[in-house]
Specification:
By secondary structure, the chain is of the alpha/beta class. 29% of the residues lie in helices and 19% in strands. It is built from ten helices and 15 strands. The strands form two sheets. An eleven-stranded mixed β-sheet has the order 1-8-2-3-7-4-6-5-9-10-11, with helices on both faces. Strands 12-15-13-14 form a four-stranded parallel β-sheet, covered by helices on one side. The longest helix is centred in the C-terminal third of the chain and has 16 residues. The chain starts with a strand and ends with a helix. The structure holds threonylcarbamoyladenylate and magnesium ion. Threonylcarbamoyladenylate binds next to β5, β6 and β10.
Length: 321
């Protein structure tokens, strides 16, 4: 199959209506989209990604009101979150209605909903009479794509079309949240583009990590993104380098400043901005995957607040072998 990269919403609409899968831009990462109401389209997504069936998909909607057609019960706190952050990098898990097929949610009674904030994809969603199931547009276990070229690298030849919306501005996946059964707290199932303190401010509810158990966060595998090079996570590159003289087969990712000169040293944000660090992280990792001669990556943790929480989460998962 030839994969075309283009900006035609009409082409994307036609393919999606025919049950095909298409890569779409979002503000977080590129998604691999199909009709969320069509089990065959969902099956195509799993097949193209080589994704295991126990890992459910996020359902993308073009307007907050659409959620009421697909979710059975939308608690007050969830409405507040939709008002405050949609369109944006927040996914909300809600009890689903029958119309969402079981393959989309891996058999769970809930579905994850998000209204993405990318003009092309919002326009696309408004032209469709169904929502879009879309996981990140990478092969299972590989790095999430923040540019159309990243999608082409991994999925070229497997999908007919990539809707080119330029580089993603947020750069890490959405925060996934669920209102607890008693309505008293917000469970963070995955840290991401909206920091927990903003969720607390919008709802007046405290956030907590999801209670342990298989149901709440399927797919949140410890070893999530396995870089094609081993990644070692440290508190400080400077301290690490004092013990291990840097060689040329190692690449380094620093937060704000370079503690030593090295041909493969990348800085996430020279101004020390966590949103910039999040936006650059996957891009740098993609570059390193394509740099010959690099045998390992050493990265330092960033300050664990705001978007830094999501950055540290992705670095930690990448470091699991
Ligand atoms: O930013 C994003 O969220 C991107 C863009 C494309 O929207 N999408 C994304 O999808 O990151 P994906 O498939 O890589 O991650 C989806 C995760 C699943 O692994 C699972 O942990 C969680 O969402 N999820 C989906 N449905 C769920 C449900 N019903 N209950 C709990 N978690 C769910
Ligand atoms: Mg993913």
């Amino acid at each position: 199959m030839k994969t075309i990269l283009g900006t035609s919403i009409d082409t994307a609409v036609r393919l999606l209506q025919a049950g095909e899968v298409v890569a779409i831009p979002t503000e977080t990462v590129y998604g691999l989209a199909g009709n969320a109401l069509n089990p065959m389209a969902a099956a195509r997504i799993f097949a193209v990604k080589e994704r295991p069936a126990f890992d459910p998909l996020i359902v993308h909607v073009g307007a907050p009101e659409a959620v009421f057609r697909y979710a059975r019960d939308v608690p007050e706190a969830a409405r507040r979150l939709m008002d405050a952050f949609w369109p944006g990098p927040l996914t909300i898990v809600l009890p689903k209605r029958e119309v969402i097929p079981g393959i989309v949610t891996s058999g769970l009674p809930t579905a994850a909903f998000r209204m993405p904030r990318h003009p092309l994809t919002l326009q696309l969603l408004r032209q469709l009479d169904f929502p879009l199931a879309a996981p990140s547009a990478n092969l299972f276990g590989r790095l999430s794509p923040t540019r159309p070229e990243h999608v082409l690298d991994q999925l070229g030849g497997r999908i007919p079309y990539i809707l080119d919306g330029g580089p993603a501005t947020v750069g890490v996946e959405s925060t996934i949240v669920q209102v607890s059964e008693d309505g008293a707290r917000l469970w963070i199932l995955r840290p991401g583009g909206i920091p927990p303190e903003q969720l607390e401010t919008a709802t007046g509810l405290p956030t907590t990590p999801a209670p342990a158990g298989p149901i709440q966060s399927p797919g949140q595998l410890e070893r999530h993104y396995a870089p094609t090079r081993p990644l070692h996570l440290v508190d400080s590159l400077e301290a690490w380098a004092a013990q291990h003289p840097p060689d040329t087969h190692t690449a380094f990712i620093a937060f704000q400043r370079a503690p030593f000169a090295h041909p493969h040293l990348y800085i996430l944000s020279p101004e020390g901005k966590l949103d910039e660090a999040a936006a650059r992280l996957f891009d740098i990792l993609h570059q390193l995957e394509n740099t010959p001669g690099i045998r390992r990556i050493v990265a330092e943790r960033v300050p664990n607040r705001g978007l830094g929480i999501a950055v540290n989460d992705r670095l930690r998962r990448a470091s699991r072998r």
